[in-house]
Amino acid sequence: MKIVSIVGARPQFIKEYALSKSVRKICDYVLIHTGQHYDFELPQLFFDQLGLSKPDYNLGIGSASQGEQIGKMVIKIEALLIKEKPDIVVFYGDTNSTLAGAISSVKLNIPVGHIEAGLRSFDKTMPEEINRILTDHCSSLLFAPTITAKQNLRKEGIKKAVYVTGDVMYDAILYNLKIAEKSKILKQLKIKQKQYYLTTIHRQSNTDNAKNLSNILEALSTTTIFFGM
Predict the structure, then answer these.
(1) Domain of 15?
(2) What's the burial of 208, exposed, middle or buried (CB within 10 Å: 0-12/13-18/19+)?
């Protein structure tokens, strides 16, 4: 069985790692990087520090308007899928790379698997929300991380081939705990274990809205729940 996996954005490299670590042992596996994140500090850092497998193909798409970026991806991905003839194509999350992969695959009648299917913000002003909805409705296999995600799919009429598989990001954490334990970052920042939060706040609706950002920071400052293994 041949699987083509498509990634393009920073988090997808980590998600792909969690999947490929197991899948490469039993399948013919091809990794396509669209180049959506093209700065060395983004993907290359993960390849070096986490020992990720280098992509078999780097499309080098880079930045552009959404329409242009997706269009270029569809053209290049389609050509590679015709060449590689995979049994299934898998992709992750809600990026332009994900949607482009879905469009390219279904147009060639290749089964597609969507990892992190069913996640919803219910805000269609977000490009990512459109990407994830369209991708789910193109997919042959839908791997939902939670029961709630499965329920979201059911409400949209998607009831077949939906599997609750858990969160690949959590799997990635488990795989890389030993690397994290060797890090000297806590000492460099002069902070102690279980006495800090690490968060990513990157949505425009959060960072560009003073009230939303203030609410997030207030919630973090008052929360006393710690994450432990």
Answers:
(1) 2-175
(2) exposed
